[in-house]
Request: fold
Amino acid sequence: MKDSKIKVNGFNLFYGSVQAIKNINLTIRANSVTGIIGPSGCGKSTFLRSLNRMNDVIGNVRTEGRVEIDAENIYGKEIDVVDLRRKVGMVFQKSNPFPKSIFENVAYGLRINGIRDRNYIQQKVEKSLQDSALWNEVKDRLNSSAFDLSGGQQQRLCIARALAVEPEILLMDEPASALDPTATLKIEELIHELKKNYTIIIVTHNMQQAARVSDFTAFFMLGELIEIGLTSTIFTKPGKKMTEDYITGRFG
Amino acid sequence: MKKRQVCQVTGFLALRACMAVVLAVLLIILIDIVSKGGGAVNWEFLTAMPRKGMTEGGIFPAIVGTVLVTLITAVLAIPLGMGCAVYLNEYAKDTPITRIIRIAIRNLSGVPSIVYGLFGVVLFVQALRLGTSIISAGFTLGLMTLPWTITASEEALKNVPRAYRDGALALGATKWQTIRTNVLPYSIGGMLTGTILGLARAAGETAPILFTGAAFYLPRLPNSVFSQFMALPYHLYIMSTQHHAITKVRPIAYGTALVLIVLVFAMNFGAVVLRYKLRKVKKE
Reply:
């Protein structure tokens, strides 16, 4: 595939002796949105966390196979996970602003990367908040606590925080699952905007959402990739019976 | 229905009685000490040296000694305890060895204080040649406080939501950056509170300082950390059991007890205020 950004080859993941991810092979194109769907416990979040090695944080996790980002195996020995996570940003299921001001939340990633230039930080925070469509709502209260924001605003703040460190890939783990329809719509519109500059992978429970926001859809089941393809194909003429059963709501 | 109500009423009564007994004991102790010691405590009592074989004068050197030895205790227990807790909770993997270490730490908090005292003699006074001194006694109390500090600090660290850590890590923070900027600021209150409570307990201990530095009577204040010192709990012990004119010095003993209790209460109160303050900061 042209412009392939991520290439996963024979990837397995084990929690202790339990295999959570089984022999995944897929390719993800740059500047596209890929939705990952599947029933609870199918390993879609685990797979997402494999792409920025957030599973390393949990003890007792073992992986096999390759995950290449820009043709480099991120599980290789010479890889610095800190650099990797700067390049592969993540937005979590439950918005997790830090107990700091709105401004400091967005500036956090810049500061830990050693940036001291105040003007630069100021500009970058503003730009990130604009890119996450939050700027107009918070520009007059950048110094108030992030906890004063609504749930949807908090999640967009977390997106702004991830954007500030200029990642190339953005992983989103059910970013709208705790939000009301209006806030969800905002996030979805945002994803649409962001794909111009980022490669986005979004895990979602909501099939309509996958259909709305993603160019490609991957269907996971019991740790296996059942099918991946253009979203329009997956939702209209799925290749596998299991995919069809799931998206038509026969189980899951 | 009737029977169940009777059950309920007697149940509550029994629970209230338990509470009342505990409160009564505490109150009786406090009233006894305040009523018998209150008269002895005045400005001179707090600021003067003991005179005439400790039958007159004040307890100033004992107050100074207890404050100094508690400071040394803090110097040892705070950094070491917090460091251990951060290591155990943030860095150490969950292996059989770390589990044994945890169990050992919890068991250490149950070791009788006299055992710490004897250990302090062997390690600090003799092996490290620090002599019977403020530093030996402070370090001994510090060791005794460590299990409390470590356990309380670990609990405080556990209370920091995982989302704060994950969020920072996902932005490319190193482990230490995550701990420094996103874990410690939100756990320091709990860590300090637990530590101060441990220190307050240490300040009232007699056995660990008995052989490691506390003196029966000194005519002057300690001039370095290597001096012997007088301490409130030990002074109280002397005045109430060992003194040659025991009935004559009874008011002094009660006064000493009162000062010691006030000191310990003040530390506990300080811990509460600190926790409250740090909580408020956290919310902002």
